[in-house]
Design brief:
The complex is a heterodimer. Chain A contains nine helices and 13 strands. By secondary structure, chain A is α/β, with parallel strands linked by helices. Chain A has a single domain, classed as TIM Barrel (Alpha-Beta Barrel), CATH 3.20.20. In chain B, strand 4 and strand 5 form a beta hairpin. The chains are: A alpha/beta, B mainly alpha. Strand 8 of chain A pairs antiparallel with strand 1 of chain B.
């Protein structure tokens, strides 16, 4: 089975069709592009023409948003088959999905919904990740979610839960640093404590994004993972601390709502690239010393 | 996650009147309504947004507020059944046709139908159109048994209203203004290359193209077109069919 991710350890951007003319005009200083796999499950047209263009020039990451790996029902085999066809056609350097569920009872909720972290849930997810990896003939990356509520029955921490899935299935992990920040604020916890527990050696890709903050009925912070603004400095600082420990990793900027003009999005990627470059420079200085 | 808990979560997500599942908590509350509402809001805003981006002209006709309200009713009663969001809203035109508050805008559902067809054409399979030169190579004596395969993106929307001009005005392709010639339109939606095209069909062309789509040979298609509108002109329609890139193959029946 192929390794979980062979994306280059540089900055990439979530592709939006409105940016295609700007991206196609000149070679972009980016290591890869990521697309939501479901947007390319139509038969033809501009989506495939654009994806084909990107495929010829850049590394590609396929990020699924509809597989509902955390579902207590069976994995949607028809959807898995579509994913297989897409991966076979484009041979992306990475495929990732979420520790979440999005379908139930025949309804697709179009959102990433939370799970209680119990032994029973763990067994279900392991089974589903095994099934996905067998169907795709490749290892996948599983992403930590942004969550807004907890479950009283949760008995395992999220980092330990993800580590157990990776241990049992051989999948890698996608560390969304913004999600770490958002979830920690939402649950009155510390992002750095979460990251200390996270199995960083299993991370194949990092996600960065913006969020906005409001308050709940008790006046406590409530962060919403909206992907509609620049990342905040605290998230960039957390990211730098992760990269300091792991070394350079493929790093994606996600911006899905109120999508800005291309130069602004590229600027976000360049901020992440600067962190990666600083890390490489430090490594070189250390090995020269 | 117990199946019953996920089922309950899913049900409560769709019905704000129901109490939260008892095991859903936060560090600040045993009933974190506002936090749970983030999920409800994500779902609803996401679905309304998907409809807004698929039906921009429909939205412009009724206004943002009315559209959001209609989309909310549709999303509540007809949520997506597939993770392929590109197909979400295929039933929205039919919903609008029977949506009482929109009843006085009689053409609304047909304009939405045209927009829904545009998305399907955008994602339709690719196929190389026959070159217009292929038209001149057709054996004129055997036209009647010519079988023409139309491009997979082709759709026809027949309306009692001038939907092509109404759509164009509200899609920003034409300035808004009074519609001079208020009559029904047969609209053609097609994407022979990468751009989705919308045009008004001449008399009888809709029946002609629909007949060809149903695998009728040219002679039969021309007859049904002439029956539907005596003004149907085969030569003009055939030339237009090839010059617009709507035909992907033309073979004589063996």
């Amino acid at each position: 089975m192929r390794i979980a991710s062979s994306l280059p350890a540089s900055a990439g951007v979530g592709f939006k069709p409105q940016h295609f003319p700007a991206i196609a005009a000149v070679a972009q200083p980016l290591g890869f592009f990521e697309v939501h796999a479901e947007n390319y499950m139509g038969a033809g047209g501009p989506p495939h023409a654009q994806l084909g263009f990107l495929r010829e020039r850049y590394a590609l990451s396929f990020h699924g948003v509809g597989l509902s790996i955390g579902s207590t029902e069976r994995i949607d085999r028809a959807h898995l088959a579509r994913l297989r066809i897409l991966c076979d056609r484009y041979q992306p350097e990475s495929f990732s999905e979420h520790l979440a569920w999005s379908s139930h009872g025949g309804i697709f909720f179009n959102d990433l919904l939370p799970l209680p972290y119990t032994q029973a849930t763990l067994a279900t997810i392991i089974e589903h990740v095994d099934e996905v990896q067998a169907a795709l003939g490749r290892r996948m990356l599983l992403e930590n979610p942004a969550t807004y509520v907890r479950f009283a029955e949760s008995e395992i921490s999220e980092p330990a839960f993800l580590a157990a899935i990776a241990g049992a299935t051989g999948c890698g992990l996608l560390l969304d640093v913004n999600n770490v920040y958002v979830s920690a604020r939402n649950h009155g916890a510390e992002a750095r404590v979460y990251l200390d527990e996270f199995p960083l050696d299993l991370v194949g890709e990092i996600h960065l994004a913006g969020h906005f903050e409001t308050v709940d009925e008790a006046g406590a912070p409530l962060c919403i993972d909206a992907h509609g603004s620049p990342m905040i400095d605290e998230v960039l600082a957390l990211y730098e601390s992760v990269i300091g420990r792991t070394g350079p990793l493929p790093t994606l900027i996600e911006w899905d709502n109120d999508v800005p003009d291309w130069p602004i999005l590229l600027g976000q990627a360049q901020s992440a690239q600067a962190v990666l470059d600083r890390c490489c420079a430090r490594d070189r200085a250390q090995s020269a010393a | 996650m117990p199946h019953a808990l996920q089922a309950e979560f899913a049900t409560v997500l769709r019905d704000p009147a129901l109490p939260l599942p008892t095991s859903v908590i936060s560090h600040t509350s045993r009933t974190p309504q506002k936090r749970f509402a983030v999920y409800r809001n994500n779902v609803m805003v996401g679905l309304i947004g998907a409809l807004e981006s698929r039906f921009p002209a429909t939205r412009r006709i009724v206004g943002d507020e009315f559209f959001a309200a209609a989309a909310r009713v549709f999303a509540s009663t007809q949520p997506p059944r597939s993770p392929l969001m590109m197909t979400y809203g295929d039933e929205f035109p039919d919903f609008l046709a029977s949506f009482e508050p929109a009843a006085e805008i009689a053409y609304l559902a047909d304009v939405a139908g045209l927009e829904a067809a545009r998305t399907r054409a955008y994602h339709a399979a690719d196929a190389a159109p026959l070159e217009p030169a292929a038209f001149s190579q057709i054996d004129a004596d055997r036209l009647a048994d010519l079988c023409i395969v139309l491009h997979p993106s082709v759709e026809i929307i027949r309306s009692q209203f001038p939907i092509v001009v109404i759509w164009a005005m509200n899609a920003g392709d034409m300035e808004l203004g009074p519609v001079a010639d208020w009559r029904g339109d047969d609209a053609l939606v097609a994407r022979p290359a990468l751009d989705v095209e919308v045009r008004r069909l001449p008399p009888g062309a809709a029946a002609f193209l629909q007949s060809l789509s149903a695998d009728a040979p040219l002679g039969t298609a021309a007859e049904s077109a002439a029956a539907s509108d005596p003004a149907f002109d085969l030569a003009v329609n055939l030339a237009a069919l090839f010059s617009a890139g709507l035909a992907i193959s033309a073979t004589h029946r063996p």
